[in-house]
Amino acid sequence: MKICGKKPKFVDNGFKHPYCSRSCARSVPGGGTNPTACALRGCRATGKPAFANFCSDAHAREGVKQGRVDGCEHCKVQPRSMGSLCIPCDRASRGGPRLRELHPDGATFKALRAQFLSEWEPSKQTPSFEKVYEVLLPQDTRARHEQFRARNPAFQEIRSFHSSQCICDLGVKEPTLCNFKSCGICSIIKSSFKSFAFGVPSNQGRFGDGIYSYRNPRLADRFATSCTSSPYRVMIAGDVCVEPEQCDENQTGDEESLFAQSAEAIIPVYVIMYAK
């Protein structure tokens, strides 16, 4: 009613639009000229760039759900607006790494839980799988990993697990990364394996300095320690590019660690919270 003074503003799914109709929007000088209709079929409201040409956040999500537009590569619920990402995820990726909790009923959570728990021996106590956080990495970190893969086409990418000491209460309240230099988990995630606890630049092992992880999370568990105030043990699930001979379990066995010489070869993908 504020624009034309005749009809009330159009309300859809609880969202109040600035105009009563597209004809009303056209009458506004400047920004209201020649508005584009909402991209969701049947909606007469005006689409907005902030919602990828849908009229509201609700209609943007519905558009992805109906398969009318591609969903964001990260959140999967918002339409793509910035390359393969939605606006919020693109904004988040330009900062430091962030964590986003996965829903226990989701397919990714269930698949990761099944993989994780299948590696524990039946004769021993199986840990309880509590939470999973997806690691949202900055674009430049992902780009470095993709460039490493492109430079090494013979390498294969494997899901692996890495543990370290976690001295903060990660996962107890909010999924926030701490700034303690002695916290190995947060240091690894924030640096994407470029820095470990106390600023150490690499691990030491049978192949020398580099980054060591395991196919089997049960083997990585021996390196997991946590602060006394947290009920969780913490493990990072990552994707690591390794030489073909490391991929042959018949030769190496799953007891052997996977070795990456540089941080560009491995990225943190998920953070697993579990208890024993």
From TrEMBL:
This is PARP catalytic domain-containing protein. It comes from Candolleomyces eurysporus.
